[in-house]
Amino acid sequence: MKEYEKLIELPLKGKALIITDLHGNLEDYNRYMKIWKEFKDKNNHLILTGDFIHSCYQIDGSLEIIDSIKNHFENEKNFHILLGNHEWAQITGESVYKGFSNQTQDFIDLIQEKYDDNADNKMESHINFFKTLAIAVKTENKVLVSHAGPSQHLKSEDDIKNISENDYSRNLVLYEMLWSRNMECSRNYLDPFLKHLNCNASIVGHTPVNGVELHGNQLIVSSSFGMGRKAYVELDLKEEINIGGDLLKMVKYLD
Ligand SMILES: [Mn+2]
């Protein structure tokens, strides 16, 4: 059985593939799993940074993606999955809108349609799975990987380690790490936030960009749902990372 930790720490060994915001895109997910299959090694890791559910298009592969990542997660110790604001919304029951459509409700409908009499059991098991997901990964070469952020209320890494599943709808640090957009706020909060965690750079998804965008010491990555190109990061865990710009040479593109 895997240990569930809110903050995963990775040593100075190997590499980590970092993939963001799949949003139910099964085709892209399968392409990334092919890359992972080649990349797999005892020192290499995969990090999915959340928002793997809730499609932005007609076809929603969220349920197929969940089944597959659950399987990888349970059987591979180096397969890490972080919580995104969309999985969080499913846990807390908050509505998230894409246009006029409430995606929290759409997800419930999708499960109902696929599993019929067994829908309640499936829903419960998916929610329990979402609750086991970590909030962030911290690497020994000083990179913080999370769904979004920074959090202006975080004071130490214990604020992540101690987040309790019973407190998901009220925890401010969690809320900021899942919802905050870098852009304006990061200029003020990003560096103090990273300093409290003893990190030099941050990698997030959440905000749709054309491949990647660097804002100060934060690299925003769109691996599937974004504004054009699809990018991911092959983070070298052995190399010294002093500033956000050091991450740019580790960016790869899907096409
Ligand atoms: Mn998001």
Can you tell me about this structure?
This protein has a 6-stranded mixed β-sheet with strand order 1-7-8-9-11-10, covered by helices on one side. A 5-stranded mixed β-sheet has the order 4-3-2-12-13. The chain is an alpha/beta fold. The chain contains 8 helices and 13 strands. The model has no long low-confidence stretch (mean pLDDT 95). The chain is globular and about 55 Å long. Helix 3 (85-92) crosses helix 5 and helix 4 crosses helix 5. It has a single domain, classed as Purple Acid Phosphatase, chain A, domain 2 (4-Layer Sandwich), CATH 3.60.21. The protein has helices at 26-39, 62-75, 85-92, 103-115, 119-132, 158-161, 172-179, 183-196; strands at 7-10, 15-19, 45-48, 79-81, 97-98, 101-102, 136-139, 143-146, 201-204, 212-215, 218-221, 231-236, 251-253. Residues 51, 84-86, 147, 206 line the site of manganese (II) ion. Manganese (II) ion (MN) binds next to helix 3.
List the helices and strands and how they pair.
Elements: E1 7-10, E2 15-19, H1 26-39, E3 45-48, H2 62-75, E4 79-81, H3 85-92, E5 97-98, E6 101-102, H4 103-115, H5 119-132, E7 136-139, E8 143-146, H6 158-161, H7 172-179, H8 183-196, E9 201-204, E10 212-215, E11 218-221, E12 231-236, E13 251-253
Helix pairs in contact: 3-5, 4-5
The protein binds manganese (II) ion (MN).
Manganese (II) ion (MN) binds at residues 51, 84-86, 147, 206.
